[in-house]
Amino acid sequence: MTLSLLLTTVAKKSDARKLAMATLNHRAAACIQIVSGIESHYVWKGKKTTSREFILIAKTSPRQRKPLEKLWKKLHPYDCPELFHLSGQAASSYARWVRASTR
What we know:
By secondary structure, the protein is α+β, with helices and mostly antiparallel strands. The protein has three helices and four strands, in the order βαββαβα.
């Protein structure tokens, strides 16, 4: 069965937790993992930048991907948030749980 992952990054753990809780409250994803210790290197407004971030990985159904993306755009603290979508096959039992959790 196909599932979707949506990834984003934030600078503060409190922002990561806010996005995770709002996502669960809206049943837009079944599970959100927060991974700390990410070191990002990028160019922002013409300057090379390095920052520590948290990455959020949300597991959702294909039909909930767009509502989740809309929610994260609304609540995200960044002006230009990374919203990266991946799609792939998951174990049937796990996919059924994700789909049941996002109804």
